[in-house]
Amino acid sequence: MTELKTNKATYLERLHIDAFLLFCLLSLMFVGLLTIYSSGGQEMDLVYRQLIRLGLALTVMFALAQVPTLFLRRISVYAYGIGVFMLVGVLLFGDMGKGAQRWLDLGFVRFQPSEIMKLAVPLMLAAYVSRRSLPPKFSTILIGFGLVFIPTILIAKQPDLGTSLLIASSGIFVLFLAGLSWKLITVIAGLGGAFTPIMWFFLMKDYQKQRVTTFLDPESDPLGSGYHIIQSKIAIGSGGLDGKGWLQGTQSQLEFLPERHTDFIFAVFSEEFGLIGVIGLLIMYLFIIFRGLYIASRAQDPFSKLLAGSITLTFFVYVFVNMGMVSGLLPVVGVPLPLISYGGTSMVTLLAGFGILMSISTQQRLLSR
Amino acid sequence: MAPKRQTIRDHSAEANLFARRAFISGLFVVFFMGLILLNLYNLQINQFEDYQTRSNGNRIKLLPVAPNRGLIYDRNGVILAENRPVFSLEVITEQVDDLEATINDLASLMNLSEEEIQEFHSERKKLRRFKPVALRKHLSHQDVALFSANQHKFPGVSIEARLSRHYPFEDSLTHLLGYVSRINKRDLEHLEATDQAANYADTHDIGKQGIEKYYETMLHGQVGYQQVEVNNQGRIIRVLDFQPPIPGQDLVLNVDIKLQQKVQEQLEGKRGAIVISDPRTGSILALYSNPSYDPNLFVDGISQKEYSKLINSRASPLLNRATQGRYPPASTIKPHLALLGLEKGIIDKDSTIRDYGTYRLRNVDHVWRDWKKGGHGVVDVTKSVEVSCDVFFYDLAYKLGIDNIHEGMTKFGFGQFSGIDLNEESAALMPSRGWKRARHNEPWYIGDTIPVGIGQSFWNVTPLQLVQSLNILINRGMRHNPQLLRGVLQENQLVEQPIKSTRAVEVHKPENWDIVLDSLYGTVNRKHGTARNAFRNTDYISAGKTGTAQLFSVGQDEEYEEENVSLYLRDNAMYIGYAPYDKPEFSIAIAIENAGGGSSNAAPVARSLMDFYFEQQQGVIAQSANSPNTAVNSQ
């Protein structure tokens, strides 16, 4: 009996669960459910469906937490290969959904290969870069960039700007954490600047360009494409310091706010809980990010470090891009607010990432003991 | 395939490198999160009020609420224009589970026609799903009862009531009351130009003619507002505030509906108009033009077929003959001319002429005939009016000249707008040299002046002008503005309109009035009076003047024979009269088109209306004598 008591933490560790991380995740999910209930017209239906997804996603997380990092490292090249293969498949045979080709139908299941790439790219990059000693040589970096570039372009072609942005950053984070020299970072930033007009004229679709122009001046088209962002800012701004109260947000309750329970859920939250609520939310996210960086820096091998770091920073990009776009700081790209937004696939991928993070965290602690 | 190791890995260096990079990443995270926070602080704290206002502007809407239109009563409190609820069967598509089945069931229950269903569907497609769509617009009482009994079977279907104008006396008052009808584009432009558009924001109908148009502002009232919270679809979620509309004022008219109906009865089957007034005040007791039409047709939107029937009818029912009908006054203006002659000193009480039945001017070939073959013999001014001698007035007109006549008759209101509270009025025509030059580009010939003496030759008048000129005679030069509106009801108390009076005609010798009024008395009461037959054995003493207006010029050597003249060229019968002679309270002008001579066709009409009026008055007096309340009050 006494042994069990003293080993309670160890007991969670045996299940490869990071208690602090789990607590933060569950708290945010709870906040998410409250906000979904409010924004979805106060119907339990949406909440139940979200609960099922969360259950599935948590299961995936627990499962992945049990997988040793060595195994992940071994399968990374296959995951990446299959992923790229399927992305090509999507472009050739994919289903259209909302004007974009994202889904692959394998007969028994439909899914978005880009979700696989969200994990496969950091896995592949971390595995590839960590084969040699760090910081990586120039040739390694070049190939690394190539590995990032291929899926990014394939996904951007679908077109899915949000996801390709997330995937590109997940790969670039690996390279950065691996010790990409500042000189090269400067050069890449310069090249990136030069690449922007090419993107604008040759790669971006009209609706994506529209998003950017609307972002620059939403009031130019208040009832058209500027409507989302204006209504969203009204929702956030009218929330004030302490918000209108849960279920009391007029912008969301009276349906002025579009995409209320998915991409724009942060506006609902801000309207109802105000700046105080927002600060609380930001703190929870910061907890998760710092915990992730802590796990990364404590990981035993470079592969794990790079992988954990990349997953954590990509999570941050999610948060930043979503909040940025909803509050009018960034153009609208379809990125959900992680752990809060209503939605299935991305939630599973996200928690799969946290599963890997937990695996890294606990396995190595167990080893080091 | 094992990778060649060129250097041995320095694990602690790698760990340090990674730790540094992780630390820098952490700084970046904090920096960018700070950026987000700063932006949100700006939105939620600095610009809070701005966004709060916009958020309220989003959700709070002011909805106008139409005021109830004022009612219109006759002088005895009988309602002439009312607001009746009309019931319509309405469907809110959103609340109906199976629209097709519901419509089918309703169709068999209510006997809906294929057209009604089609109209419903086309209307439905134009509106949002939560807006009610009418399936049948005017439900009968049976419809209402039938549906009410079955309402539970039809969720989302209901009976809605709206107030709609109704004129219970239908075609009896059309030209007087006018009507309201749906606000059209032109009305809207006018409302916008006069800054009234907001007041009509929720109003369905507007006065188009008659009293309804003239007193539109008083009848309409002030719009109210409902402050509501709406969602992004514009659906009302709840009412936050309500500022009730101020209903329009209730009007009381001078019109006596019973008398008006009697007038209508008298004109049955004829074309013409009658105006009855109270000479003491200028109040209009009855004003009717026949043929008429049912104004209720216009309230709900008249069908094209019905409208073209009205507009193409040769009898012109849309014309208000009482105020717009232009009739040659014929002999009815002889008394006015007589007064003018007396005042100008051209004739006096005793001047006579000898009438052989024709009138000639030196060096002029034309012969002007008297209506009576062989003439009236020696006549003075009084007799000339009584027997309606034409030659006397040919001569008088010749001696007065058109300039004097124009000036004098204009003072009696001829060729002028009467100032009645109706927009549909004609000034008719009092001819003059200037007018003829402008209109026909011809000089005024002396030959034009002669027939002016018997109210012909370009001169035309409206029945309303006639009754007004008669009132000026009765009142010895005083003119009271003809007035349909008696007053407004304020908290059930009648607040009367002031009488607008001016001195229209000044005389040097007041006894001239006596001479003229006496001649009117003689017309009705003395031996040769042209109206004597019509007014035999009345309980009251009246006075008047007949008139017969020629529309067809008989050749110099021809006889006018009624049978040979087409219906629309037959003579118009005219009459003006008043009673009682000593204390006038009833004055009338009658014009009946193509009816024949005034003495036999217009005077009897005046007779029966006066009979009716005084019988009614008698009744009222008898009633109030019997009533103990009034007896007490009168003490």
Q: How is this structure best described in words?
A:
The complex is a heterodimer of chains A (369) and B (635). Chain A is 73% helix and 3% strand. With 369 residues, chain A is mainly α. Chain A has a three-stranded antiparallel sheet. In chain A, helix 3 runs antiparallel to helix 4 (44-65), helix 4 runs parallel beside helix 15 and helix 6 (113-129) packs across helix 14. Chain B has 635 residues and is an alpha+beta fold. Chain B is 39% helix and 21% strand. Chain B has 23 helices and 25 strands. In chain B, strands 2, 3, 4, 5, 12, 20 and 21 form a seven-stranded mixed sheet that branches. Chain B has a five-stranded antiparallel sheet with strand order 14-13-25-24-23, with helices on both faces. Chain B is elongated. The N and C termini of chain B lie far apart (135 Å). Classes of the chains: A mainly alpha (369), B alpha+beta (635).
Keywords:
heterodimer, A: 369 residues, mainly alpha, 3-stranded antiparallel β-sheet, 15 helices, 3% strand, disordered N terminus, B: 635 residues, alpha+beta, 7-stranded mixed β-sheet, 5-stranded antiparallel β-sheet, 23 helices, 25 strands, 39% helix, elongated, disordered C terminus
Specify Rg of chain A, calculated over alpha carbons: 21 Å
Pick out the low-confidence regions of chain B: 628-635
> Helicity range of the residues of chain A?
over 70%
Shape category of chain B: elongated
Q: How many beta-strand segments of chain A?
A: 3
Low-confidence stretches of chain A: 1-7
Tally of helical segments of chain B: 23
Roughly how much helix do the residues of chain B carry, as a percent range? 25-40%
Strand order of the largest sheet of chain A: 1-2-3
Tally of helical runs of chain A: 15
> What portion of the residues of chain B fall into strands of 2 or more residues?
15-25%
**What structural class do helix, strand and pairing data of chain A support?**
mainly alpha
**Rounded mean pLDDT score of chain B:** 88
Q: What structural class is derived from the secondary structure elements of chain B?
A: alpha+beta
Averaged pLDDT of chain A, please? Answer: 85
Number of strands of chain B: 25
Reading the helices and strands of chain A in chain order gives: HHHHHEEEHHHHHHHHHH
